[in-house]
Amino acid sequence: MGEASLLLHKEEEEEEAEEAEEAESSVNRTGNVWTAVAHIITGVIGSGVLSLAWSVAQLGWIAGPFAIVFFAAITLTSAFLLCDCYRTPDPEHGPGRNRSYSEAVAMSLGKNSAWAFGLIIQISLCGITIAYTITSAISKRAIQKSNCYHNAGHEATCEYSDTYYYLIFGAVQIVLSQAPDFHNIQWLSIVAAIMSFAYSFIGFSLGVGQVIENGYVQGSLTGISTSSAIEKMWLVSQALGDIAFAFPYSLVLIEIQDTLKSPPSENQTMKKASTISVVVTTIFYLLCGGFGYAAFGEATPGNLLTGFGFYEPYWLIDFANACIMIHLVGGYQVYSQPLFANVERWISEKYQDSGFINNEYSLKLPLIPAFRLNLLRLCFRTVHVVCTTSIAMIFPYFNQVIGVLGAVNFWPITIYFPVEMYFKQRNIEAWTTKWVMLRIFSFGCLLVTMFAFVGSIEGLIGAKIS
């Protein structure tokens, strides 16, 4: 009887393995280095680039560029660690894929770590989509203000309510959120990446033009002067939070890696794509941040293209803000799709027999191709977009919000979990040279995160009170 049970159990395991193999083979992975670069740049260059001139202005000409390069190096180091966690060694079935960051944490560090990670990452993903909603509304309003200043003069009172802009962005995201997964939005990421290059280049070019018009470089080695050392400390900490927000894409790295075809191995392709993307974005960030500060000095705005350091040419300002809006439409989806997948996967596993949750319906509307509709996807994703839009309307404070989000995301998701998974994957023994170096790396980043978080929270509270 025992042998029969063992045999039956073995057959069930083999059947499960076959089913998993079939499911795996049904996923059509066609991504390459350049599609991965498009996804990464879409995820990285977003709201963060717009605040970099302000961040450099708080830190000054020495600490500002150094901080940008510092965070770039940390981001790339973390990305390399995380790339190697896409496939988890399995003694029975060989290396298996982890289709999401949360799966990789669960496989490497266990269920308790996966639960803690899941909570942090869902909060972070929601926070980023809130920041993107705020930035998109600000950009829409900036176009209207730019046209008003052009027509009525720079001294005119050009104030507009942005409620309408938030609602438009939310409506667009409700529609786009019905795309089933990452594999269905590669085109959106490519378009969004092009837009990010466009407005970054425009911001850089306008800064160069303003410096040439001024005839000299503004700014100082210590940054913008303040009334007290305490105020300076809070602004510096907030600037570090803004820079931290501008770089990391660890939240979606493994999801992007899961779109890649092999051979070559996914981790090699992803490391190459990460290197290209981080180098390109760092150059953009240094140019945009540096020339923004050089152009305006003490008057550097919190948002380079919507804080109206620039007024003319108004049509170019309008075009840059339109590019920002298009980019953020794609960026919102890049960060939302992992959240959608995690929640919907958990609900589907919990209620496997529910037709509402698992049934797919084909819907054909005039003039557009047929698409699949799922009632769970329709309801949950709509509620998510409504919630993020509502929160963005309550806390529309650009620099403070992205400072808080940068600090919250930076250490736990970009540093702690990749380091811990790397230890587990590579069986790094305690007190070896590599172990000590990575522990110092992790602890140093924790201190920076805590400093940035406290300062950004202080700034958010101060903005809300005022």
TrEMBL record:
<feature type="region of interest" description="Disordered">
    <location>
        <begin position="1"/>
        <end position="28"/>
    </location>
</feature>
<feature type="transmembrane region" description="Helical">
    <location>
        <begin position="435"/>
        <end position="457"/>
    </location>
</feature>
<feature type="transmembrane region" description="Helical">
    <location>
        <begin position="314"/>
        <end position="335"/>
    </location>
</feature>
<dbReference type="GO" id="GO:0006865">
    <property type="term" value="P:amino acid transport"/>
</dbReference>
<protein>
    <recommendedName>
        <fullName>Amino acid transporter transmembrane domain-containing protein</fullName>
    </recommendedName>
</protein>
<keyword id="KW-0813">Transport</keyword>
<feature type="transmembrane region" description="Helical">
    <location>
        <begin position="114"/>
        <end position="135"/>
    </location>
</feature>
<feature type="transmembrane region" description="Helical">
    <location>
        <begin position="232"/>
        <end position="254"/>
    </location>
</feature>
<dbReference type="InterPro" id="IPR013057">
    <property type="entry name" value="AA_transpt_TM"/>
</dbReference>
<feature type="transmembrane region" description="Helical">
    <location>
        <begin position="61"/>
        <end position="82"/>
    </location>
</feature>
<feature type="transmembrane region" description="Helical">
    <location>
        <begin position="187"/>
        <end position="212"/>
    </location>
</feature>
<keyword id="KW-0029">Amino-acid transport</keyword>
<dbReference type="Pfam" id="PF01490">
    <property type="entry name" value="Aa_trans"/>
</dbReference>
<dbReference type="GO" id="GO:0016020">
    <property type="term" value="C:membrane"/>
</dbReference>
<feature type="transmembrane region" description="Helical">
    <location>
        <begin position="378"/>
        <end position="398"/>
    </location>
</feature>
<keyword id="KW-1133">Transmembrane helix</keyword>
<keyword id="KW-0472">Membrane</keyword>
<feature type="compositionally biased region" description="Acidic residues">
    <location>
        <begin position="12"/>
        <end position="24"/>
    </location>
</feature>
<feature type="domain" description="Amino acid transporter transmembrane">
    <location>
        <begin position="30"/>
        <end position="461"/>
    </location>
</feature>
<feature type="transmembrane region" description="Helical">
    <location>
        <begin position="33"/>
        <end position="54"/>
    </location>
</feature>
<feature type="transmembrane region" description="Helical">
    <location>
        <begin position="275"/>
        <end position="294"/>
    </location>
</feature>
<feature type="transmembrane region" description="Helical">
    <location>
        <begin position="404"/>
        <end position="423"/>
    </location>
</feature>
<keyword id="KW-0812">Transmembrane</keyword>
